[in-house]
Each structure stands twice: as structure tokens, then as C-alpha cells.
Amino acid sequence: MNLSADPVTIAGMVTREVRTGERDGARTKIIVARRPYATGQADLWDALTNADRIPRWFLPVSGELKTGGRYQLEGNAGGVVEQCEEPETFSVTWEYGGQVSWLVVTLRPTDDGTVLELAHEAQIDDMWSQFGPGAGGVGWDLGLMGLALHIQSGAPVDPEDGMAFPLTPEGRLFVRTAAMSWAEAAIADGDDSAAARAAAERTIAFYTTMPGDGNGT
């Protein structure tokens, strides 16, 4: 993956926040990622919502990308488009592995581009205890980086390069920086500091270990 800056700098472009919430009487955790992009709101909206363009930085998508429509990402989540207010915000359900969570994406124009805010809410379960916010947060960090590379060049991001990146020295440093930042966000929300950092270490091992390899970072 062609990086224009060092991995720590790239990971540091994301502002991370964790909030505790409630939905249908159940406690939830909300991970929030904010990242600036050097492009206009309309262009960023198109990159996020155009079915022909989404695969250039994320995954092939099928379905109806409109309010009330169902979508399906190839080999990943699907769900329902609950709200769509072009070019400012959209919300979808995120259905994967028998679990349902909720995703809201908001775009805010700035003097030199657009800030993307992604908020992903899920019920607290064993995954949170084991991996903390980094389980989903690092995945979104990698996706937001792919989006930045696409916005910068206009070209598609090679999916094989994207999959291999966390296994490279630069990718491992990126994942570690992001995961530890998510841990600090969880601690700021009230999670136990030792447990949060231990969960981050498990997240790092998950993203940076090849299948069948017993070694972490």
C-alpha cells in the first residue's frame, strides 16, 4: 500500500471517542471516528454512496442504496438503509454473524475539505470484553485509510494490498497505534485501564497475525 506519510502520522489523523449508550433497554458502546479529507463534501459523499465507487476503496456492494433499501457488502455485513440526507448523513443497520449494530456517517464541510464522522453502536457483549473498541475500530481505521488513498489518487485501492498491509512492519505499527488509541478512548469513557490495554493487545494480535501463525506483533 502506497503510504504518503509514516503509519503513526496516518493513524493519528483519526480522532477516536468511545461513548456508553442505551438502545431498547440494553447498554451499548458507541465508537466514534473522525477523519479529515482533502476533498469537497459532494465528492466524499459520492465515494461513500456510489455503488460503482465503493469497491474502489472498500468492498463490492449490492442492493438498493436508498432509504428503506437493503444492501449487502460482499463477504461482510448487510443491512437496511434507515436514513439518507444527501450530502450530509446516512444511517444503516450493520448486520453480520447474526448480530445487529447501527452505523451513522456524517460529513461536515471545512475550509480545506470535509470531516467524516463515523459512529458505530453495538450492544455490549463478550467481544467487547475480549477486544474492546479496537475490534471494530481498527477495521474502520483501515477502511478510512483506504478511502483516503482513493480520494488522493482517484484510483482503486488494490484489495490484496489492503489485506496484506496489517502484516507488514508499517501496517503493524499502524494497527498498534490505532488500537492503543482506541484503548485510551475506552478508558476515558470509564473502562478499566489495565483491561482496556490488554484488550487492545489482543486486537493487535488479531489484525497482525497470519492464519496459522502463533506469533503476534
Short structural description:
With 217 residues, the protein is of the alpha+beta class. 38% of the residues lie in helices and 31% in strands.
CATH topology: Alpha-D-Glucose-1,6-Bisphosphate, Chain A, domain 4
Number of helices: 7
Biggest beta sheet attributes: 8 strands, antiparallel
- Count of structural domains: 1
Radius of gyration: 17 Å
Order of helices and strands: HEEHEEEEEEHHHHH
CATH hierarchy: architecture: 2-Layer Sandwich
Unreliable runs: none
How much of the sequence is in beta strands? 25-35%
Task: Characterise this structure.
The protein has 217 residues and is of the alpha+beta class. It has a single domain (7-208), classed as Alpha-D-Glucose-1,6-Bisphosphate, Chain A, domain 4 (2-Layer Sandwich), CATH 3.30.530. The protein has helices spanning 7-11, 41-49, 126-131, 134-153, 159-164, 169-188, 193-208, and strands at 15-23, 26-37, 61-63, 70-73, 78-85, 89-96, 99-110, 113-123. It has an eight-stranded antiparallel β-sheet with strand order 1-2-8-7-6-5-4-3, covered by helices on one side. The chain is globular and about 40 Å long. The model has no long low-confidence stretch (mean pLDDT 93).
